[in-house]
Amino acid sequence: MPHKLLLILSLLLSAIAVYPQSPTPTPKPEEVEKLKKASLEFLKETSAEVGRMRSIENRISFSAELASLLWFHDANEAKAMYALAITDLKQLLMELDAQMNAATMPLDDEYMGISPLLGGYGRSPAERKLRIAMSVRQQMALGLAEHDAEQAYAFFYDTGIIISNEKFRKETEQQDKYFEFQLLKTIADTSAAKAASLGALSLKDGVNSNHIEILKKIHAKDAEKGIEFGQAVFSALKSKKSRDEMSPYIFSTLLKFGSESLAASRKPSGKKPVYTQTELRDIADLFAQILLDSENTESVFSAELYIDEIEKYSPARAAQIRSKVGAKSLSMGIGTGGSNMNRPPNRNAMKVSVNSVNAVGVEDTAETAAALREAAEKKMMDAVEKLGKPLPKDERDKVIAETRKIISQTPGKDKKIVALSMLAAHVARLGDKELADEVMRDAEQLVNPQPKNYRDFMMTWMLASGYANANPTKAFPLLEGSIGRVNETLAAFVKVAEFMDVNEEMISDGEVQVGAFGGSMLRGITRDLGIANATLMSLARADFAKTKALTNTFDRVEVRVLAKMLVLRSILDEKKPAKIEGGDGDIEVETAIR
Q: Which of 184, 179, 196 is nearest to 145 (CA)?
């Protein structure tokens, strides 16, 4: 992605990024329900604001995201929101396709001297718009797949056939082949049965590595459906098309996964394997036969890499491969005093060579420094985690004092702020609010009160995140002041972007095309910034009205709506995020941003 675009996106991200600290206590059920009810009202308000956005691509993207969140709580209303967004997208695709087919559409050749941000040289405005709309289509398909796999698949294909422009349709078909697997992987996370049936349809063009990844996902979720899809994959492997075009890597990957699955099944409470011993032997036989039938010299020698895998299930075939490789080597004079120029690299010799170099004792200062930093960080985190255990007050105070000392000696301001914030949160939960504020003041000393650059802003939001868990009342004014300052910077960046974006690829109708970049930028932002969930949840529980008010302090509508989406996702999204062990509990995050 071009540097100009990265600058804009980084600022948009940093404008709403906050960092998680220690987990907050579990709220009472009635508090959870009250917060959800308030959030659903907030969602409706946000939906109305989305409807007033000028960019149709943004309206469609944000509406689909809101529908995805609403689905967890009111599926019927969410379906209605999706239906409207889908109708709007189809209408947009038809209009742009018609414009592309119009013979009078000019190309923007006058802009040949200016580097495009998203499109290419010589493309018509309609084609650039259509590319953005197709990216929105992908985003919507992924969101819908989390709730209704069949509808998502139908939507994906129904909107694909709208494109009648021959040139653009060929390009789209190639992109769709790759995206289809992304869609199947998303479906596999929610429904193994539907992923298995839809995945079987995608095998008509042969097997590739994506099918193996989907097989792993399905089998992990539902062993029976994994076995069912595994049989479909093996049947496809037997086809002539697969045998002619298949990379040995595919067979090798499938055989390894099958072996691992079989070994795991033999453990107590192990699930049924995707393939039996007999079926793995059949796969090994087929794999070996393909290697033996090949007359390609490179394929013959690469067969050596797979002999051990094949021998485990089919010793006779492995012996045949060894014999063929040996005969080929003799015919080329390898191993008999002839030229070694065509011999495959000797991996063992390469390992010896590398080990010999390492044995010389050359000091790697970078690695040494990294190891020292890692040890210091571990010591720091271990000290913080001690506070999660019941301790007498005297011993606890001693641990807190020692922890603060360790943190002060740890390199890296960002790490110090995170550690101090975690420490303050622990102390606050122990009931000592004054000491928690004192610890947070240590963190505050590390932050520029007048942030000027990206790093300054990130430090400020990290500090606010710490206060959100230790003392939320101090987090709100800190965030409000930061947002006020970043509004000026955002306005300047967008102004510069508009100056450069002569083709209106990134900024259209005065709004940054948030929902279009990379096919799923909007989903990527709201998912990847799930790292902010713990902090946003703390703020929302402390004072939901103030949290809502914070989102309204952003001047730009697309950033304002993004901030609201993050708050709504932290409360309404019922998909279970990944967990990071730490402290006296688990910190729930989706992706750690570094």
A: 184
Residues 6+ apart with CB under 8 A from 61: 136, 139, 140, 514, 515, 516, 522
Type of residue at 387: L
Q: Which of 42-56, 67-81, 120-134, 461-475 is the least confident region?
A: 120-134
The more confident residue out of 343 and 60 is 60
What confidence score (pLDDT) does residue 403 get?
83
Amino acid occupying residue 504: E
Look at 214 and 342; give whichever has higher pLDDT: 214
The pTM is what? 0.71
Question: What's 279-310 look like in SS3?
Answer: HHHHHHHHHHHHHHHCCCHHHHHHHHHHHHHH
Which amino acid appears at position 439 of this protein?
V
> What whole-number distance in Å separates Cα of residue 54 and Cα of residue 73?
28
| Residue 196: pLDDT over 50 | yes
Assign 366 a pLDDT band (cuts: 50, 70, 90).
low
Q: Is 173 left (phi over 0), alpha (psi -120 to 50) or beta?
A: alpha
Transcribe 141-183 into DSSP letters.
Answer: HHHHHTT-HHHHHHHHHHHHTT---HHHHHHHHHHHHHHHHHH
Average pLDDT (493-520) is: 73
Percent of the chain with pLDDT over 70: 72
With contact defined as beta carbons under 8 Å apart, do 179 and 519 qualify?
yes
**Torsion angle of the four alpha carbons 330, 332, 335, 337, in this order, in degrees rounded to the nearest 10:** 110
Is 209:253 a contact under the CB 8 Å cutoff? yes
pLDDT above 80 for 171: yes
Alpha-carbon distance of 585 to 388, in angstroms, equals 8
The half-sphere exposure of 389 on its side-chain side, counting CA atoms within 13 A, is: 8
Supply angle C-alpha 374, 529, 92, rounded to 5. 145
Contacts of 154 (CB under 8 A, 6+ apart): none
Neighbours of 371 (CB within 10 A): 11
What are the counts of helices (DSSP H) followed by strands (DSSP E) for the chain? Answer: 27, 4
Strand partners, 581: 586
Q: Give Cα separations from 372 to 192, 359, 365, 380 (angstroms).
A: 45, 21, 10, 12
Tokens representing 191? 């429904």
* CA–CA gap between residue 225 and residue 502 (Å, rounded): 51
pLDDT-wise least confident of 116-120, 144-148, 446-450: 116-120
